[in-house]
Predict the 3D structure of the following.
Amino acid sequence: MATKLAWIDRLSHDRWLGPVTLLGPAGVWLLLLLVIPTLLILDISLVPGLRLGQPSGGYGLGNYLQILQPVYLRVMFRSLSFALGTTVLCLGLGFPVAYWIALMAPQRWRNVLLVGFVLPLWTSSLLRAYAWTTILRPTGVLNSVLGVLGLPSQNWLNTPTAVFIGLTYSFLPYMVLILYASLEKLDTRLLEAAADLGATPRQSFWTITVPQTLPGIAAGCLLVFITSLGDFVVPTLLGGASSMNIARLIYNQFLGPTRAWGFGSALSMVLILAVSLAIALLLKYGDRSTLTETSQ
Amino acid sequence: MTPSSSKVTWPSLFTALMYAFMYAPIIVLAVYSFNESRYSAGWEGFSLRWYRALFSDRRIFAALQDSLTVAIVAVAVSAVLGTLMAIGLARYQFRGKALYRGVSYLPLIIPDIAIAVATLVFLTSVAVPLSLSTVIAAHMVFCLAYIAVVVSSRLQSLDPNLEEAALDLGATPTQAMIKVLIPQLAPGILAGCLLAFVLSMDDLLISSFTAGGGANPLPLEIFSRVRTGVKPDINALSVVLILGSALLSGLAEYVRYRSEKRRRLSG
C-alpha cells in the first residue's frame, strides 16, 4: 500500500490541496455532529433524574443504576435474545444459500443470483416490516394459506415470534452477502484433495470449509448482531407491547411522554458500549481483516 | 463442475425456498395494492382505487418532497466532503490519523437510535430550532461516512501509473486530481452516493429526532400511518417506491458492470 500510493506524496506540496482542505470539512462535521453529541449524552447520562426543562442536580450513577431494576433488565435481556436469536437464524438460513450460490450454482449465474437475493435491501426497511404485518395479522395471508391447507391458524403478530421473523428477514441478505464473499475465495482444490484422501463430505465441511470461512462467519454474525440489537422498526411494527427492546425504550424516553433524557442517554451509552464490546471481541479473537472487509 | 448442479438437490431446493421467503412479502404487498377490499385478506376483485387514493394524497407528496430534498442535498454535499476525506486519508500520515479514521467509521457502527438521540441532545443544547436543515445536517454524518468508505476502497484499487504520468508530464497536482484522479474515482463516488441516497431515503430514526414539527420526511409519514394497522394506500405506495428503487438498483448494477468491464478491458 505504501509503495502503491507513493505518487500521492508528490501531490502534498500543492497549495490548494493541503491536509486542511481535504480532511478539514468532513472532520469538523464529524466532530460537531457526532463526537461532541456523543460526549454530551455521556455527560447528561451522569446526571440522575434529568428531565427536559427541569433544573438538574449533581453528577451520579443513578441513571445507570435504574437500568438494573428488574423491569429494565428484562428489556435488556429481551434485546440480547432478539439479537442472538436473529444472528443464529441468519447464519443457519444464510449459510446454505451462500454456499449454494458460491459453490454449486452454474458459474455464470452466480452474480445474478447473488444480486437477486440482496435486491430486497433496496426497498424501504419500514415497508418490508409493514409487509409482514399484512402476512401475519389474524386475518392475514398466512392464516388464509394455513386454512386452505387445513392447519390451525396462528396468531403471531405482536409476539416475539413475529419479531424474530421480521429481524431475520431484514438482515438475512447482509449475512448471505458476507458469507458469499468468504465462500467465493474458498480454495476448492483443498476439498478435492480431501475427497481424494477419503474424507467424507461431512468431514471436509467441518475441517476445511468452516475453518476457511470462519472470518466471514464472524463478520456476518457481528454485523447481524449489531444491527438487530439496535433495531427499532421491526419490534415496534411486529412485536407489539410485549416486545419492548432497548431501542424502543430509548425512543420513549425522548419522544414519548416521560422525557427522561438522562435515563435515555444512559441507555444509549449502554447500547454503544454493547456494540463496541462485540466489535472488540471480534478484533481480539477474529481476523482483523474481516472488519474492513465488512465495511467495504 | 459437479454433477449435482444439473439436478434438483436439497441445497438448491432450500435456496429456492429462501428466495421465496425474500420475495413473498413484496409480492403480497403488490397483489394487495390491487385488491378492492380494505380489511379482508380475501380477494374481492381488481381495483385501482388505492392508487387513485395515493395520487390524490397531498400529504404523501409533501413528505416525498421533504425526503428527496434531504437526500439530494445531504448526498451532494457529502459526495464532496466524503471524497476529499477519502483522498486525504490515503495521502497523509499524521498524528491522530487512526483516531480520525476510527471516528469516520462510527456512523457505520453506532446504532441509529444512539446517533439520533445524541444529535437531538446536541441541537437542543445549542438551541438550534429543528427543521429540514437539521435533518440534512444529521444525514450528512452517515452519508459522508459511507461515501468515504466506498471511495477509499476504490482508491486502493487504482492504477497509480496514470497520476505519475500526469505529474511527469507537468500537470499541477490540482490538475492531476481533477483531470485524472476524480474521473477514475467516479464509479466509486457514484456507488457511494447511491448507497447514501438509499440510506437517507430509508432513515426513520435520525429524521424523527431531528425533524421537529417543521419537516415530515416520507418514512415518518409512513411510520405514523402503519403503526396503527394495515393501510391499503400504503400498499400502493410500496409498489411505487419498489419500482423506484428497482430502477435505482438497476442503475447501480449497470454502473458497476460498466466500470468492471472497462477495468477488464484495460487490464
Q: What stands out?
A: Chain A touches chain B through 96 residues (CB under 8 Å). Residues 291-296 of chain A have pLDDT under 50 and may be disordered.
